[in-house]
Automatic annotation (TrEMBL):
<dbReference type="InterPro" id="IPR036388">
    <property type="entry name" value="WH-like_DNA-bd_sf"/>
</dbReference>
<dbReference type="InterPro" id="IPR005119">
    <property type="entry name" value="LysR_subst-bd"/>
</dbReference>
<dbReference type="InterPro" id="IPR036390">
    <property type="entry name" value="WH_DNA-bd_sf"/>
</dbReference>
<protein>
    <submittedName>
        <fullName>LysR family transcriptional regulator</fullName>
    </submittedName>
</protein>
<keyword id="KW-0804">Transcription</keyword>
<dbReference type="Pfam" id="PF03466">
    <property type="entry name" value="LysR_substrate"/>
</dbReference>
<dbReference type="GO" id="GO:0003677">
    <property type="term" value="F:DNA binding"/>
</dbReference>
<dbReference type="InterPro" id="IPR000847">
    <property type="entry name" value="LysR_HTH_N"/>
</dbReference>
<feature type="domain" description="HTH lysR-type">
    <location>
        <begin position="1"/>
        <end position="58"/>
    </location>
</feature>
<comment type="similarity">
    <text>Belongs to the LysR transcriptional regulatory family.</text>
</comment>
<dbReference type="GO" id="GO:0005829">
    <property type="term" value="C:cytosol"/>
</dbReference>
<dbReference type="Pfam" id="PF00126">
    <property type="entry name" value="HTH_1"/>
</dbReference>
<keyword id="KW-0805">Transcription regulation</keyword>
<keyword id="KW-0238">DNA-binding</keyword>
<dbReference type="GO" id="GO:0003700">
    <property type="term" value="F:DNA-binding transcription factor activity"/>
</dbReference>
<dbReference type="InterPro" id="IPR050950">
    <property type="entry name" value="HTH-type_LysR_regulators"/>
</dbReference>
Length: 299
């Protein structure tokens, strides 16, 4: 039994005639008779009492007709919703965003996509890159922004942006007037970092270890503006992506760090082994095209 059996049954009941139902459906009368016979065999009941003048529903036929109409309506609604999805008239995309990024470029891309597909909605979830990757794999998010390198065996990705980290210092700091600072010169400083949910925490710690010291971390936070306030209040120093450091409203000094220069590369990721919705696929294509055009314009 498939949906056509039920649809043909509904039409025969409506017209009380195999012939009229067949004409309405543009099929032959023997075809529809065979379909109804197959349905009766599948259900193990007779659906119609057949007379020379018309066919009449049996008690079982009346019971099944009500359910058949419900099933047919649900199928039609499903088809409509699928058509909407395929035509991108509907959709919902859950995106994970790290707070350690300049959101201006991303918001412009999101706005352009919304103009083109106004019925697709978004849920934006701020979290650290580690949590974003975990939530994508658990299917709580569709896509997200993370820090490269990522787990290439589990995620597909394309490049979003890159910049360097800067040292952010109180204005009175002994190194505040320098144009650049060697990382090893920060060995005795008090560090204020993003918490361990953020890849930035790992990146700073590992970079410090590479040049021979373990950073003395006196505080961790999940908010870049709070970190800025603590630096301005002379609690310690931090290291932030250049674009984020530029957003700090407090009076602080920003200095380029060298030996090593610490890169901050962001990418948009999605899972390799999971289903990707039509809306999400279209957004990924749109975003990648916008980024490509933007990169070409800068050449």
């Amino acid at each position: 039994m498939d949906i056509r059996h039920l649809q043909y049954f509904i039409e025969v009941a409506r017209f009380q005639s195999f012939t009229k139902a067949a004409e309405h459906l543009f099929i032959s009368q023997p075809t529809i008779s065979k379909m109804i016979k197959n349905l009766e065999e599948d259900l193990g009941v007779e659906l119609f009492e057949r007379t020379k003048r018309k066919v009449v529903l049996t008690d079982a036929g009346r019971l099944i007709l009500a359910q058949a109409k419900t099933i047919d309506k649900a199928f039609q609604n499903l088809q409509t919703q699928l058509d909407d999805l395929l035509g991108l008239q509907k959709g919902h995309i859950r995106i994970g965003l790290p707070p350690i990024m300049d959101a201006d470029q991303f918001i412009k891309i999101l706005g352009g996509f919304h103009d083109q597909y106004p019925h697709i909605t978004f849920q934006l979830v701020e979290d650290g890159a580690k949590k974003i990757e975990t939530n994508i794999l658990s299917e709580d998010l569709d896509v997200g922004i993370t820090v490269l390198p990522t787990q290439e065996d589990r995620f597909d990705y394309f490049f979003l942006s890159n910049e360097d980290l800067e040292v952010v210092l109180p204005p009175s700091h002994r190194l505040a007037d320098r144009k650049q600072i060697r990382l090893e010169e920060l060995a005795d400083e008090n560090f204020i970092l993003f918490n361990k949910d953020f890849v930035l925490n790992d990146k700073i710690r590992s970079s410090c270890h590479e040049v021979g010291f373990t950073p003395k971390v006196i505080s961790e936070s999940s908010q870049w503006d709070f970190i800025g306030k603590m630096i301005a209040a002379n609690f310690g120093i931090s290291m932030l992506p250049k674009s984020v450091a530029s957003l700090l409203k407090e009076e602080v000094k920003r200095v380029h760090v060298i030996n090593p220069t610490i890169a901050w590369d962001l990418a948009i990721i999605w899972p390799k082994e999971h289903y990707i919705s039509y809306a999400t696929k279209e957004w990924l294509t749109y975003t990648q095209n916008r980024l490509t055009v933007g990169a070409e314009d800068q050449l």
